[in-house]
Design goal:
The protein is α+β, with helices and mostly antiparallel strands. It has helices spanning about 40-55, 65-75, 85-95, 120-125, 160-175, 180-185, 200-205, and strands at about 5-10, 25-30, 80-85, 100, 105-110, 115, 150, 195, 210-215, 225-230. It has a 5-stranded mixed beta sheet. Strand 4 (about 100) and strand 5 (about 105-110) form a beta hairpin. Helix 1 runs parallel beside helix 5. Its EC number is 3.1.1.29. It comes from Streptomyces leeuwenhoekii. It holds the Pfam family PTH2.
């Protein structure tokens, strides 16, 4: 898995960090037990939903306990770091302040942003690399009436890298939506799908004006690579 994840978003670019200010990252931990790892697509969808749940949580806004850290993070680079845990590691992660989001089989816990060099002990020891995920069966076609996060068909990304990138895409869609559409998405439980785009459709998607993630190129892909297009029906 990859801990890169400093995107250059198209359409909704955050400010650059203030000189000398600490850089914040959003930690996500995916549960991967040896005997029963989650399917890749389920993990990607669950991590994207976890980012949205954190953004919409009352503790993340206004005078909430996580609000200042969320502002410090969102006002700079929206970096995300995905790590894996199993067994006792997962139980220790669950004991820390955060939110666990479940998919069909996947479990992802998202935590309030932390300084890049200031991870809590229970998370700092978790592995970033070493495990990848597969889909036992090909995902069914996405529902065109629901949000879809389209992955670049020309890029090979580890599960961790792709989880962070789909999280970026979901966040850019959230930023781009009017308040009413945000509330409707939240109230519905943030339904979404993650699919790899058909190569024949990819250029159309990237030139459609939809929120698009371009990677900074720290790991796995070249700088400026377009990784995800966030296709929310309200933004078409």
């Amino acid at each position: 898995m990859s801990q890169d994840q400093d995107p250059t978003p198209v359409n909704t670019a955050p400010a650059r960090p203030t000189a000398g200010a600490p850089e914040y990252v959003l930690p996500l931990v995916v549960r991967i037990e040896r005997a029963a790892p989650p399917p890749r697509t389920d993990a990607l969808q669950t991590s994207a939903r976890a980012v949205l749940v954190m953004l919409a949580d009352e503790r993340s806004v206004g005078d909430g306990e996580w609000a200042q850290a969320m502002r410090d993070w969102q006002d700079a680079r929206i970096r995300k770091v995905v790590r894996r845990a199993r067994g006792a590691e997962w139980r220790r992660a669950e004991a820390l302040p955060g939110i666990t989001v479940t998919g069909k089989a996947a479990e992802v816990r998202v935590f309030p942003p932390v300084p890049l060099d200031g991870w809590p002990k229970g998370l700092a020891r978790l592995q970033v690399s070493g495990t990848d995920l597969d889909d036992p069966e090909a995902p069914v076609d996405a529902d065109p009436s629901a949000p879809v996060l389209w992955l670049n068909p020309d890029l090979e990304m580890s599960a961790g890298k792709a989880m962070a990138q789909t999280g970026h895409g979901a966040q850019l869609a959230w930023w781009a939506l009017p308040a009413g559409e945000r509330a409707a998405w939240r109230d519905a439980g943030f339904p979404l799908a993650v699919r790899t785009a058909d190569p024949a459709d990819w250029r159309r998607l990237t030139t459609s004006g939809l929120p698009t993630v371009r990677d900074a190129g720290f790991t796995e892909v070249a700088p400026g690579s377009c990784t995800v297009v966030a296709d929310h029906p309200a933004l078409r």
